Every structure is written in C-alpha cells, then in structure tokens.
Amino acid sequence: MRPATSSTTSWLAAAAFAAAMAIGGDLVAAQSAPDGENGRYSMTPIPEGVLRLDTRTGTVSTCTKNGAGWACYAVPDERTALDAEIGRLQAEVEKLKGQLAAGPTVSGKVDEALPKSDPLKKAEPRSAEGERKIEIPLPSEQDVDRVMSFLEKAWRRLIDMANRVQKDVSGRI
C-alpha cells in the first residue's frame, strides 16, 4: 500500500462529501415531500385485498380489486358510534337539567311524611258516583230453559257413550 497523497485525500474527501450530500439530500427531500408522496396511507395486505390506514385522520378502509379497478370502503368505527351516542346522551342530560331547573321547587322540609290522602287521586263529586251504576241484565226464563236443555242432551249423550264403551269392553273380555 502506498501512502495517501494530498490529491488522493482530497479526492476521497470530496467523494465522501458528495455521498453524504446525496444521502442527506434524500432525507431532506423525503421530509419536505407532499403528503401524497410521503406515505399518508399505511397499507397492510389482507386476504380480501388491502387494509388502508389514513395516518392523518385514523380512518381505516378495506380496499378490494373489482372489474372496474380498486375500490376502498371505510370500516365502521365503533369509536365514532360511541362518540355519537355519548353526544346524544349529553344533550339529553342537559335538556333534562333545564326542565328540572324550570320545574316547580319544593319548599319546606323534604323529609316530612306525606299526607295520608293521595293528592294525585282526583276527587269526584258524590253525585257523579250515583250515576255510574253498572247494570247487568239477568237471563230470562227462556234463556235458562235453553241452557238446561243443552246440558241435559249433552249429559245423556255422555252416559249413552259410556254404556256403549262398557258393553264393547265386557263382550271382548
């Protein structure tokens, strides 16, 4: 090996500097590149196609290839549904608080016993109670005779049937 001369050393230094600038320049270019070129989306292969994560918004989509090309559909986000439900419930709580604040206030001691009469029960005048009698019409003699006749016929048929069954069974034994 021969000793390095100043021209060789300067040439090596220049080459090293150029390589460092090339590598550093790529890093600077990658950092200043627009979002579309800087990997805004992170892709992960799945059996149906590709799972796409938007690194800016956090939205996850499934991308599949069909006859017309690639199509991406957002995956339902449970967090979004939960946030929406929490917002709805908070609005309802605020509405109920407003209604409660606008309602009548209780004065005096709250721990006292309630009166024995039910204040929610509507008091009706005594004269109205007399007018509300319910009349149930009783059956006439003709109606009673028809029912009795039906029952007698049914009873006789039942007895005749029992006698026939007894004769059939006693003849076979």
What does this structure look like?
Helices cover 52% and strands 14% of the residues. It is of the alpha+beta class. The chain has a four-stranded antiparallel sheet, with no helix packed on it. It is flat, with a radius of gyration of 48 Å. The protein starts with 5 loop residues before the first helix and ends with a helix.
Cα radius of gyration in angstroms: 48 Å
Give the SSE order as H and E letters: HEEEEHHH
Biggest sheet: strand arrangement: 1-2-3-4
Q: Any idea what the shape is?
A: flat
- The chain-level structural class is alpha+beta
Give the oligomeric state of the chains in this entry, treating copies of one chain as homo and distinct chains as hetero: single chain
Mean pLDDT: 75
How many angstroms does the end-to-end distance come to? 131 Å
Low-confidence stretches: 6-22, 25-36
Considering DSSP H and I runs of 4 or more, what fraction of the residues is helical?
A: 40-55%
How much of the sequence is in beta strands?
A: 5-15%
Please give the largest β-sheet: 4 strands, antiparallel
In DSSP terms (H or I, runs of 4 or more residues), the helix count works out at 4
| Tally of DSSP β-strands | 4
Throw out a few tags for this protein.
single chain, 173 residues, four-stranded antiparallel β-sheet, 4 strands, 14% strand, signal
